[in-house]
């Protein structure tokens, strides 16, 4: 508000114009008001042309007021030009009131130029002016109106618009596609102007309201105009309803796409978390296996050191061969002890074999359960069984080697009895220490193997649970998509049925109107027949009077005059009936065209609904393809889990073989 007032005062000073008190008082009233309405009301004030030029410059850049009122200001043509120049540039004003300013001639031309250049004003009131007084000026005004693309309401009441001006206005409205309401009351449109407006309605489908009271237009033309306006109004309502439905459907589809994107992101996050967890578990298992391999290498180094000690002992025994003969009694007793130890070792081996058999049975049971869950692992299970058989063969070979070594040990014992007697105490102590160490190592390795096996079983169970959860999630998403698809199809079917029912009701109404019109036509035809019969009766009467009253010429002449009058009346009535029939035929033709347009509109709506349904189906197919891709990724993850499971089983078998090798090597060292 301050900007407007300062700009007005500055421009008045620059143009050497004295600011008018009415304008300043109006602006000060806005400043003192608590609630500011963006309306500048200068009505009933006498504004000079210079003041209007200054106001036009201020209005050109103003963004404060959305409505300006200059009613009953008796503005001159120069004042109108100054104001319209400002409104031509202004892009913020929505409503303009210039009622009662005696606008004519160049003022009307200035308004036409303003309408051609302005693209924001929605309503203009030009009541009680003389815009239609000069045809050339009004033609320029109509050209500007035809080029305008924003005006929705125009008030031209009492503007001396003739039938020629109405024709110009109708020609301009054929090019205009935004005007909805036009007020032409209290002008001189007449029959020709009404017909021009009626012809305009056949082209312009946007005008929904035209006020034509006090224009000396026949009733049939007014009825035809009302019919065309009601059709335009119905069409506008249908278009608006269709636009609203399309906006609602678009918002609903966007919301669905947003929800599906959120669900897909959540599912992808869950899959990434599962992959991260699997990588961590795989890394942990790899670290454990590497630790076990390091432990196995350490045990191999210990076994090698024991073998070196055994070689040194054998070299020492070779030096004591000469003393063997003196220790025969001691050898016999040592043989008995060795026999007991061998039996003990055999018992330990038997127990280990039983434990191994139980372990193999348990492993076979687990493998059979896994085979029931996944048929694809059969080949790998067969490889595992073949490896187990190879291990059994290796065990049998190791048993034979043990027996062979025992026989060699007995042979060596017969040769080295004397050395055995000397080293008896030392050997007993070493055997006890070795037995104790071996028992500890075997117990520890067994415990580690059991712990590893338990951990691997738990991990396999967790992976199975994860796979089941992912399958349930995929099935749930698929069910959700199916329900959403069915819901959309039902909503589209309901909408289409509603549109079809509305069109059927409209068609029934039009058929009812057609039936009433046909009834009226039949009544008019009957009246015409009655008039024809009346004419025939009069002619028969005339002939009878001519035959009977030949001598009464005066009466005959009077009868002829009466007959001529009746004939003229009859002909006038027949002409009226023909005009009414033509009007009825025109109405029927208009109704037929309306039905054709409605059918085309229905076909267009069906086509749009089909296109919309096709787009919905394409979106659902894309979602289903995304679900299929997720299923493929899930299958890949399951394959990776199965691969990890197979690797863990192979590592467990390698660990088991290492334990068996360790257990088989310990008796060799004890025996030697």
TrEMBL record:
This is Leucine-rich repeat-containing protein 45. It is found in: Cytoplasm, Cytoskeleton, Microtubule organizing center, Centrosome. InterPro entries: Centro_Cilium_Assembly, Leu-rich_rpt, LRR_dom_sf. Keywords: Coiled coil, Cytoplasm, Cytoskeleton. Pfam families: LRR_6. The keyword Cytoplasm applies. GO terms for cellular component: centrosome; plasma membrane. The keyword Protease does not apply. It comes from Pinctada imbricata. PANTHER family: LEUCINE-RICH REPEAT-CONTAINING PROTEIN 45 (PTHR23170:SF3), NY-REN-58 ANTIGEN (PTHR23170). Residues 317-408, 446-480, 507-647 form a coiled coil.
């Amino acid at each position: 508000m301050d900007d407007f007032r300062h700009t007005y005062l500055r421009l008045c000073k620059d143009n050497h114009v004295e600011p008018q008190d009415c304008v300043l008082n109006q602006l000060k009233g806005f400043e003192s008001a608590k609630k500011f309405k963006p309306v500048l009301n200068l009505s009933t004030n006498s504004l000079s042309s210079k003041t209007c030029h200054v106001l036009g410059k201020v209005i050109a850049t103003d963004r404060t007021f959305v409505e300006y009122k200059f009613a009953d200001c008796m503005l001159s043509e120069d004042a109108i030009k100054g104001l319209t120049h400002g409104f031509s540039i202004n892009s913020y004003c929505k409503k303009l009131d210039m009622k009662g300013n005696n606008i004519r001639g160049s003022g009307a031309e200035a308004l036409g130029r303003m309408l051609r250049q302005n693209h924001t004003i929605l309503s203009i009131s030009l009541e009680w002016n003389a815009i239609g007084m000069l045809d050339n000026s009004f033609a320029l005004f109509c050209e500007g109106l035809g080029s305008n693309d924003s005006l929705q309401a125009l008030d031209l009441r009492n503007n001396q618009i003739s039938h020629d001006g109405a024709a110009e206005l109708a020609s301009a409205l054929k090019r205009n596609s935004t005007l909805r309401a036009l007020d032409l009351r209290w002008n001189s449109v007449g029959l020709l102007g009404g017909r021009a407006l009626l012809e305009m309605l056949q082209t312009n489908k946007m005008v929904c309201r035209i006020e034509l009271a006090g224009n000396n237009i026949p009733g049939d033309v007014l009825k035809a105009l009302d019919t065309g306006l009601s059709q335009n109004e119905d069409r506008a309502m249908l278009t608006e309803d269709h636009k609203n439905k399309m906006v609602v459907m678009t918002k609903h589809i966007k919301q669905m796409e947003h929800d599906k994107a959120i669900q897909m992101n959540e599912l992808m996050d869950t899959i990434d978390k599962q992959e991260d967890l699997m990588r961590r578990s795989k890394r942990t298992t790899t670290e454990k296996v590497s630790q076990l391999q390091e432990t196995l290498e350490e045990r191999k180094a210990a076994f090698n050191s024991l073998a070196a000690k055994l070689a040194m002992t054998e070299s020492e025994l070779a030096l004591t061969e000469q003393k063997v003969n003196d220790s025969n009694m001691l050898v016999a007793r040592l043989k008995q002890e060795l026999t007991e130890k061998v039996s003990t070792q055999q018992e330990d081996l038997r127990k280990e074999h039983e434990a191994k058999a139980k372990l193999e049975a348990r492993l076979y049971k687990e493998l059979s359960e896994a085979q029931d869950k996944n048929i694809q692992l059969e080949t790998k299970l067969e490889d595992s069984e073949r490896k187990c058989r190879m291990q059994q063969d290796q065990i049998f070979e190791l048993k034979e080697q043990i027996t062979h070594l025992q026989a060699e040990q007995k042979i060596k014992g017969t040769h080295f009895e004397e050395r055995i007697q000397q080293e008896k105490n030392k050997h007993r102590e070493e055997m006890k220490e070795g037995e104790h160490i071996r028992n500890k190592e075997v117990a520890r390795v067994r415990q580690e193997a059991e712990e590893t096996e338990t951990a691997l079983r738990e991990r396999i169970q967790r992976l199975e649970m994860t796979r089941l959860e992912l399958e349930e999630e995929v099935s749930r998403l698929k069910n959700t998509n199916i329900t959403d698809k069915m819901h959309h199809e039902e909503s589209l079917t309901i909408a289409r049925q509603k549109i079809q029912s509305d069109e059927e009701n409209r068609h029934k109404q039009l058929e009812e109107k057609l039936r009433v019109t046909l009834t009226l036509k039949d009544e008019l035809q009957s009246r015409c027949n009655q008039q024809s019969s009346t004419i025939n009766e009069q002619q028969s009467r005339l002939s009878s009077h001519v035959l009977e009253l030949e001598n009464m010429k005066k009466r005959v002449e009077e009868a002829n005059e009466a007959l001529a009058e009746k004939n003229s009346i009859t002909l006038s009535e027949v002409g009226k009936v023909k005009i009414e029939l033509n009007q009825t035929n025109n109405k029927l033709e208009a109704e037929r065209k309306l039905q054709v347009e409605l059918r085309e509109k229905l076909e267009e709506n069906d086509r749009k609904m089909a296109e919309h349904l096709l787009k919905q189906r394409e979106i659902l197919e894309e979602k289903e393809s995304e679900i299929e891709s997720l299923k493929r990724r899930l299958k890949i993850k399951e394959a990776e889990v199965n691969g990890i499971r197979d690797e863990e089983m192979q590592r467990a078998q390698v660990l088991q073989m290492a334990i068996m090798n360790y257990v088989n090597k310990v008796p060799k060292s004890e025996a030697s």
